Amino acid sequence: MNSVVCDWVTEIENIDCSEFEDEYLCDVNAGCDWRCLGTMWGGQCLGAGYGCDGGLYEVESASCIDISEFNCDENMLMFDCTGLYFCNNEPEYGYDCFVNNEFCEDFNQDGIIESWVGDGWCDNGQWGYDFQCEEYSFDCGDCTDQYSNTYGYCDGIPEAHSFNHEGIERQYYLYSPESIQENAPLIFALHGFTGSALGLSNYSGLNAMADEHGFAVCYPQGTSDQNGDNFWNVGYNFHTNQAVDDVSFIISLAEFLQAEHGYDTRNTFVAGMSNGAEMSYKLACETDGIFKAIAPVAGTMFGVSWTDCNPAPMPVLEIHGTSDSVTLWGGDLEDSYWGPYPGVEDVVNFWSQENECLSNETLPLEGLGTIKHRYFDCIDSKEVWLYEVVNGAHSWPSYSAQEIWNFFSKYTALLGDVNEDLSINIQDVIITVNLILDGQYNVLSDINQDNFVDVLDVVQIVNLILN
Known about the structure:
The chain is of the alpha+beta class. The chain is built from 9 helices and 22 strands. Helix 8 packs antiparallel against helix 9.
């Protein structure tokens, strides 16, 4: 990398920097006075400096750096705590964006303020931290494959895996907490159009929920279309030439993970963002008994998923912004790009009717800018919830992971609830007695987990009812 020494640096003492604002900052280094015309970031000047002809002025070397060799968008040009500049443009790694945002500031106004941000965009390079200094953040090896992990920042990175399906080598990431138990629930989380599995892992907040509640999260990767964009094959107008069977892929992957890791076949769920949300609807339409409930975010139903969906009753939670400019709240039956699609309320009404819900209520969620529409008194208590994010955009609200788990946990099968009606009662006792008489086994009747269903389990179910 070429650099030239800037001869305009002058030495002065006792510099007062208070007069300089965001766009015109100053720093003191070895008695040198300089001003940054670009962005001030982590104690360094990330922008044009005097005499640098549009290049970068580096304080430590007092030199101008030619950035043309980077081939990098300006907002992706970063440097680490050793002063090494690099282009942070690795979308397959979520843009390396694992930064400890200890002040919980929403730098790019995307609504994500968790302490581990990692939202896939690095907030346009405006972090107030040295990017790879270990005390604040970490690289986890995806950029240089060299990193230290003194503080355990890299422990929570999901593992990458390959899975061959119908001759295609597919990828997925699996996050499984160290303390996870046998027969743990499994959640599939599906990324949006042009998105990535690891990107969704970075910003969804589901891994933190998994740590707290003891479930696993699988982030499958879609395939790439004719334009090189990652996608799920839900029936967009411009994907008529795509034949990949994503429904079969996710079913096969679910069955593999359940067998390989002992995840609970009765407690497997699907959530998704945008195109991933639409894929979750497609799975609900075209499968029966594989997935317990779905939670689409900022999505709708496309193609045959809307025109020819004959599902079994399925609990549904939809989270959607009223100002979504990509997947319109009111839908667009004349859309010629994506293809015709219904409005959010039409989709929710469809599922509430399929589930034969008899009652509904509207509840404001204080402090979340959201209205909850709940449809209940449904078949087997399979409710439909709509979170109407008032003036919300096409985004994954910061509370999504918590609310998704709140919803899924309502449908997590419990020992003793043999008929899975969300309550343990005399019907479960009768079913268990019949299992014993017929010599059959059901894991939900095996209360003492001895791999047999016998009178001891009946006694324990009665005790659960009495208590």
